[in-house]
Structures are given as C-alpha cells and as structure tokens.
Design brief:
The complex is a heterodimer of chains A (412) and B (147). Chain A folds into 2 domains: 131 residues, Aspartate Aminotransferase, domain 1; 255 residues, 3-Layer(aba) Sandwich (Aspartate Aminotransferase, domain 2), CATH 3.40.640.10. Chain A is globular, with a radius of gyration of 22 Å. With 412 residues, chain A is of the alpha/beta class. Chain A has a 7-stranded mixed β-sheet, sandwiched between helices. Chain B is of the alpha+beta class and 147 residues long. Chain B has a single domain, classed as Sufe protein. Chain: A (Alpha-Beta Complex). Chain B has a 4-stranded mixed β-sheet. In chain B, a hairpin with a 4-residue loop joins strand 1 and strand 2. The longest helix of chain B has 16 residues. The two termini of chain B are 28 Å apart. Classes of the chains: A alpha/beta (412), B alpha+beta (147). Chains A and B meet through helix 12 of A and helix 3 of B.
Chain lengths: 412, 147
C-alpha cells in the first residue's frame, strides 16, 4: 500500500513537469532522494535552454545587432528575476557566478583579502560545507588572519550564545550557512545578522540549500552577501548568483579580470565597469541565466507556501519512518529543519547502504557530504542522506524504508 | 544485472562482522595508512617482515563492508608469503577486481569472494584500499590513497 500525503501541493501534477522522474533505474522506477546534491529540472527549464540556443544565441553587451540585443535583454531579464526572487533592492546587486562556491570565493578574494590583517578573524560555524570553509582558510592563510569556528549543539543547531561571544573586536566577517546540507538545520539567519551588525561585522549567508526550500528575502534578513546556486533551484548547472549590498560591492575591486568587466583598458591601467559587470569577466553563461530565469518562474508558479507545506509533511513522515526502523539513527535533529534526513545504521557503513538501496532504483547520497568537520563532530565517518524536494512523495519514502529493511536483513 | 549477493557474499559479510588480524601489531617493522577520500574509509596496516618473508600482518581502522572484509582477507592471504609472493598476489588481485565481468579470473582461493566487485565499478576502490596500503607499507611509503 502506498502512503499519500494530503497537502496543498498536487505532487502528481508537479512530477509530470519533470521528465526524468518517469525514467527507470536498475529496472525500477527512479526514486530520486539526492536533491541536496542537485535537483531535477522541469521541462520549462530544458525548453528555455534549448530556445535560447535555437532562437537567441549571441554574445551580450557587445553587438549592435539584433540578436546581441535580444540575448542581452534575456540575460538582464534573468538578473531582474533573481533580484525579485531574493527581494534585493536593485538588479545591480545581483552578480552572476558559476555557482555558490564561486560567489563565496568572490567575496573571500575581493572583499575579505584586501581588508584582512594579521590577527583579524573570520567567523564561520561548525556545520559549514567545505565551500564555506576553504575559501576563508585561503584568505586567512594569505593575510595572517585567523579562522574562528562557532560550535554546534548535539542536535546540530548553532550555539548562538557561543557565536555571540566569538564575535570580537578583531572579527571582520561572519560567513554561515542558511541551511546545513549535511544536517538539514535551518540557522537563525536574521538573528545571526542582527548580532553581527550590532558589532559592526558584515555577514555572508550561504543559501545553497535554503533557497529552494523557503522564501529568501535578503532585505528582511539584512544580509550583506547571499549566495545561491542555480542547479539546486531546479535550474541548470554552471550558473549561480551572488547578492551583495551595493555599497559593499562598490567599494570592492574586481575578482576576475577580462572582457566586459572594464570601462577602459590601456597597457598602463584599466578602469572598472559599473555594477554588477565589474564582477562578470568574460562571456557569462547566458543560456544558464535564461534557464535559471525559467526555473525561478517555475518555483514561483508552485509557490513557496505550498512547497514548504509539502516538504514539511514529507520531513515529518520520513523522520517517523526512519525512527521506526531499529538501529537507524538520524544525525541532525534541529528544531528548525529543512527536508534533509541524514542517518546511520548500527553496524552498517553508509557506503554499503548506498549500494544496496541503489539496486532498488533509489538515489541517496552517502559519504561526508563535503562537510567532514560535521561528520567528526558527530563521531561518524559518513552518513547516508535522503534529501527531499517538492516532487518527492511519501510512497518514495516507503520505498526507502523497505530498502533499509533489506540492508538490515543482509547485515543482521 | 549484477546481483547484490555477488557483492555481499557470505564470506565478505562474515569478515566484515568479525575481521581477522584486526589489531595493532607491536612488532611491526613496516606500516602505512590507507585513506579513501571518496567515502572516508581509513585503515592502518602493520607488517612484520623477517628476512624476505611477511611473518605477521594486522590492521585497524573503519570502513565499509567491502574495504574491511578485503583487508581482513588480505591479511590471511599474505601472512607467511615472501615479499615477491605478496607483490605478485597484489597484481593478481588487482586484475581480478578490474577485469570485465564476463572474463575468467584466476583462482585466488578465498580472495575470489571479492570478484563480484567487478560488477560495481564505484566499489573497486573499497576492495583495493588495503592492497594499495600494503604496497605502500612494503615500499616504506607511509600513506596510501585510492585517489
């Protein structure tokens, strides 16, 4: 018997928009539970990508010809779409990047490095993805600054009191995730920003995971920098965006040099283009931006209210299901959680779980999830992770439950 | 289609549950650490060499069933072997786990329990980790990696 959750979201209608969900894997219907790694794409995104290349393809900001104008217009409308999606004040505060990682590296290189002095501090949390650790290690290593890590609790929540204590007079920047990819924890981002701003410290929020689960409003959060990646927003790979407060972006030197980011070039010196082009060197991923536009339109057409209600129901159902299987332990039990279920099974290595459930057509991630310090914090070498998106169903979680029973039987 | 029972044979499940020679070795003359960055498998291998013969071998660490069972089976297989014999066995083992699934493989005794790994390409590294670590220990490198 298949369990059906009654929520405001018509999941079968949503699933019909995602062609890949009707394929089979290993002779079974695909059960895709690896959305925190990347989400699948609705047909409207695939069509927008194809239409860009069949109807519009030309370089942007260069030609006087019709196609170049059309391509530029499509690219800039995509930027406006990202602005409204994140509720930024101005489109020039949206910089297109390859992904969230590049957005963080941009801030680490163009904002942090020139401002960090020996003994200064960058404050992150113990639940960061490697992409929000390593760029800061590099910046600190190059400047003599120190990377400080705010601890997390046994439930996987940020220890807010410790966090507040760790912001000192040498803290130059706070960089924390808005939602943990390994634990599912949704951090109190507004509170984090308020505490940091009280001490005059700017904040970067990593929205890689949060942005496809809930409405993000960078102005309500009062974030200084916010990064997202397109491929987790049901959009193409290779396109992401950095929101930066205009006054901060204005004060920064470029990250990468090249075409499009300059106002003028001589061999003696160059001057920089205005925002956001100062930070977009070279031909950008125009098709990717157009595809991202379609993806954000798709998300808004479903609506975060319904997405959140559906995913919350899935998370509750999945949590109860896993807790009902003897030997299964969920890692990450924060009160505020997105739809990520990281778990271990007594006596079974996650890698073996992954192989066995894969044989049933079920895609889960196993390993350290690019968050090795989180694994160390919880004393596990790795976890298995089922991460849920708007198109997942309770029936798919049932399938996972059956597969995990098979794992237990095999290793009993 | 590859069957799960080809991979998780009874011998492997048994060696995963009760790994043999699973301890540190006080008299070790050689040792090395093995690490598979993809899945976080880690093991330390201890080898005691007398003359040109492996007189004792043991391991510690954590990993998936395949890597743990492979390490356990390896320690049984190479104990008492000459260095040349152990190296030759490494080559034979490597051929076995990387051969095409339809290809015949040499009879390597109990090690044949790992032949099923061929049908699961992403798991070959798990099965080879202990052997790469042995090779590193014998050549006095201190670290082995499957990358």
């Amino acid at each position: 018997m298949t369990t059906v959750l009654r929520t405001g979201l018509d999941v079968e209608k949503v699933r019909a928009d995602f062609p890949i969900l009707s394929r089979s894997v290993r002779g079974r219907p695909l059960v895709y539970l690896d959305n925190a790694a990347t989400t699948q794409k609705p047909v409207s995104v695939v069509e927008a990508l194809a239409r860009y290349y069949t109807d519009l393809n030309a370089n942007v900001h260069r030609g006087v010809h019709e196609l170049s104008e059309l391509a530029t217009d499509a690219y800039e409308r995509a930027r406006e779409r990202v602005r409204s999606f994140l509720n930024a004040a101005e489109a020039r505060e949206i910089v297109f990047t390859r992904n969230a990682t590049e957005g963080i590296n941009l801030v680490a290189n163009a904002f942090a490095r020139p401002r960090l002095k020996p003994g200064d501090e960058v404050l992150i949390s113990a639940m960061e993805h490697h992409s929000n650790i390593v760029p800061w290690q590099l910046a600190c290593g190059a400047t003599g600054a120190r990377l400080v890590v705010a601890p997390i609790t046994d439930d996987g929540e940020l220890d807010l009191a410790a966090f507040e204590r760790l912001i000192g007079h040498r803290t130059r920047l706070v960089a924390v995730t808005h939602m943990s990819n390994a634990l599912g924890t949704i951090t109190p981002a507004r509170e984090i920003v308020r505490i940091a701003h009280e001490k005059g410290v700017p904040v970067l929020l990593d929205g890689s995971q949060a942005a496809y689960h809930m409405r993000v409003d960078v102005r309500a959060l009062d974030a200084d920098f916010y990064v997202v990646t397109g491929h987790k927003l049901y959009g193409p790979t290779g396109i992401g965006a950095l929101y930066g407060r205009a006054s901060l972006l204005e004060a920064m030197d470029p990250f990468l040099g090249g075409g499009d980011m300059i106002a003028s070039v001589t061999f003696e010196r160059s001057t920089w283009n205005e925002l956001p082009y100062k930070f977009e060197a070279g031909t950008p991923h125009i098709a990717g931006a157009v595809g991202l536009h379609a993806a954000l339109d798709y998300i808004e057409s479903i609506g975060f209210e319904r997405i959140e209600e559906h995913e919350r129901a899935l998370l509750e159902y999945g949590t109860a299901l896993l807790n009902g299987i003897p030997g299964v332990r969920i890692i990450g039990t924060a009160r505020q959680k997105g739809s990520i279920l990281s778990f271990v099974i007594d006596g079974v290595h996650p890698h073996d779980i992954g192989t066995i459930v894969d044989r049933e057509g079920i895609a889960v991630r196993t390993g350290h999830h690019c968050a090795q310090p989180v694994m160390e914090r919880f004393g596990v070498p790795a976890t298995a992770r089922a991460s849920l998106a708007m198109y997942n169903t309770a029936g798919e979680l049932d399938a996972l439950g059956h597969a995990l029973e098979r794992v237990r039987a095999m290793f009993a | 289609m590859a069957d799960l029972n080809d991979l998780y044979q009874e011998v492997i499940l048994d060696h995963n549950r009760r790994p043999r020679n699973f301890h540190a070795l006080a008299g070790a003359t050689h040792s090395a650490e093995g690490f598979n960055p993809l899945c976080g498998d880690r093991l330390t291998l201890y080898v005691q060499i007398d003359g040109d013969r492996i007189s004792d071998v043991a391991f510690e660490g954590s990993g998936c069933a395949i890597s743990k069972a492979s390490a356990s089976l390896m320690t049984e297989a190479v104990k008492g072997k000459t260095l040349a014999g152990a190296r030759a066995l490494f080559e034979q083992f490597h051929q076995m786990v990387t051969a095409a699934p339809e290809q015949d493989v040499e009879d390597l005794g109990k090690l044949c329990a790992l032949a099923g790994v061929r049908q699961f390409p992403v798991r070959v590294k798990c099965a080879s980790l202990a052997w790469h670590t042995l090779k590193a220990a014998l050549s006095r490198e201190t670290k082995a990696s499957t990358e």
